[in-house]
Amino acid sequence: MRLYTHPDCLLHDTGPGHPESIDRLRITLEALREAYPPERWIEAPEASQQQLLRVHSPAHIHRILDDPRPEPHRIDPDTVVDAHSARAALRAAGAACAAVDAAIDGDQPRAFCLVRPPGHHANRDEVMGFCLFNSVAVGAAQALAVHRLERVAIVDFDVHHGNGTQDIFWDEPRVFYLSSHQSALYPQTGLRDERGANGRNILNAPLPRGADGAALRRLYEQRLLPALDDFRPQLLLISAGFDAHKSDPLGGLLLDTDDFAWLTGELVAIARRHAGGRVVSVLEGGYDLDALRECCLAHAQALDDHT
Hints:
This protein is an alpha/beta fold. The chain has one domain: Histone deacetylase domain (Arginase, Chain A), CATH 3.40.800.20. It has an 8-stranded parallel β-sheet with strand order 2-1-5-10-9-6-7-8, sandwiched between helices. Helix 7 packs parallel to helix 8 and helix 8 packs parallel to helix 9. It is globular and about 50 Å long.
């Protein structure tokens, strides 16, 4: 396994009190740098315009890259940017693309992209929910366009539904988007009847507030993992949000660290059956710092241990 990050992701400053803070990445990097030697770490490149244009409109890209205001300011009710935010978002999307390239063409089939800002709420034309560019979508589009894969799966276990990823791939049968998330939570999407244009490439599994790890495991064992197995992905991407942890201030699910480790192991097992073990995980949410640090370490270990 390789770990992708860049110092630019630590410069994106959302200001005092904002949950998507620099400390989220700082404490995570500290823990994982203790656990993994320098040779495992890759400096993330910037995503190119061509890579971004596969999933975002020119107007959306220019809005982010050409913002002249250096001081922190809101570009939607939840999303704050400053002079460093565009470059951080370019590195986050670039990490996903570089990890996809290495997983398919290189000798390292798995990667964890420790980047910010998160991305799964950003759709083709809009910034939303702390997200600027949809990094996991940019990575999936890289696999389709450059590597000509026919079946790419994205599993999103963030407590919030990844509405941007769903919207981007709504009409794309080569991408299977699977999301478990808390129902009736921001952004109020991800209902079970949202199935994609062909009725098969989107699978949403909302969980009620208060659902615990046992409920999540039943859901995956009985419904979600079999559907993913049936799709036979050639590459598995993960939107790795850890705000479904019981300690997270922005969610109402009751998962613990072992639940994320278990789920990661199950996803790796499916990737081994169908995709040569290729898994690229991209950090999304998670806003309790202690829980985020523990979950990221457990997630990385599960990615790394299942060879």
